[in-house]
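TA notes, week 10

Several of you asked for a full example with nothing omitted. So below is the full record: structure tokens for the whole chain, then the designed sequence directly under it. When grading your own attempts, check the secondary structure regions first.
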């Protein structure tokens, strides 16, 4: 199966320059979309997945700063790399772009080879970051699947713990994104510390999804790690809420922790998906919230 091409959006109202960039990056094996207006660029970004945006600051309708601001406000494009392409050289303009999350800044006239390298490097950095949860800095997605797939052929007695935090969405609605992210970081630290205290140096901690933590350890250590995680998080949950809510809410709607564990030899696991399916099945069967 052919690898999917990276998709660039070139937002530039100079038609000759836009056509040149389109032709050049197409020959470099990118899929290229172009827009001459800011509003058009925002519509394309809302409808299609993008690997990177090359964005001119001076556009006929809304300027590049506003386009960038709106791209950063949308979940689909909040982490999409953006390179500003502009004639401006003022330091203040560059700082404004950096504050908006622009990853690079190149001024006209530019060397097309330099732009090609900047585009390639920005896409590679973004791809690497996509494998790491931006809040907890723990691996997820392909990195976790790789670790789970290694277990299929492993000969040592391994164990995998699944720890799920329920209620983060409700907490986010109460206190906002920043507070919810801080709670997620605190939970991550407690899990790391539990594994440090009771696990092995080469244990692995990652995410199955944003609220599901997976800990890969050895069978002789896993039960102690699981117990310590449950104890520490159970003791800490009420402290994530305001004192008045602790007294009057009776913890209804508070965070809950559910854990499960599987071990080598309990079943035949042919791949990472089979291990994840077994973990989710064990979680449903055990359903042990720490309230």
């Amino acid at each position: 199966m052919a690898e999917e091409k990276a998709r660039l959006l070139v937002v530039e109202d100079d038609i000759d320059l836009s056509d040149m960039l389109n032709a050049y990056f197409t020959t470099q094996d990118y899929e290229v979309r172009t827009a001459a207006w800011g509003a058009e660029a925002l519509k394309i970004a809302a409808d299609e997945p993008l690997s990177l945006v090359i964005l001119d600051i001076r556009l006929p309708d809304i300027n590049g700063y506003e386009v960038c601001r709106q791209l950063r406000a949308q979940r689909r494009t909040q982490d999409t790399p953006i390179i500003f392409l502009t004639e401006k050289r003022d330091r203040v303009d560059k700082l404004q772009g950096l504050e908006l999350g622009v990853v690079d800044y190149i001024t006209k006239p530019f060397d097309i080879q330099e732009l090609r390298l900047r585009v390639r490097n920005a896409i590679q950095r973004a791809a690497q970051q996509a494998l790491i949860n931006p809040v907890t800095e723990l691996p997820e997605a392909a990195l976790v699947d790789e670790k789970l797939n290694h277990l299929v052929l492993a000969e040592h007695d391994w164990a995998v713990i699944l720890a799920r935090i329920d209620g983060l969405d409700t907490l986010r609605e109460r206190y906002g994104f920043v507070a919810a992210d801080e709670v997620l970081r605190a939970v991550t630290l407690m899990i790391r510390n539990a594994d440090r205290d009771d696990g092995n140096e080469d244990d692995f901690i990652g995410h199955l999804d944003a609220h599901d933590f997976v800990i890969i350890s050895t069978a002789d250590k896993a039960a102690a790690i699981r117990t310590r995680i449950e104890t520490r998080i159970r003791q800490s949950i009420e402290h994530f809420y305001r004192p008045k809510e602790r007294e009057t809410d009776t913890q209804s709607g508070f965070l809950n922790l559910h854990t499960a564990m599987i071990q080598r030899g309990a079943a035949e696991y042919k791949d990472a998906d089979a291990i994840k399916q077994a973990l989710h099945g064990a979680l449903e069967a055990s359903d042990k919230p720490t309230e």
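The chain has a mean pLDDT of 88. Use that as a sanity check on your answer.
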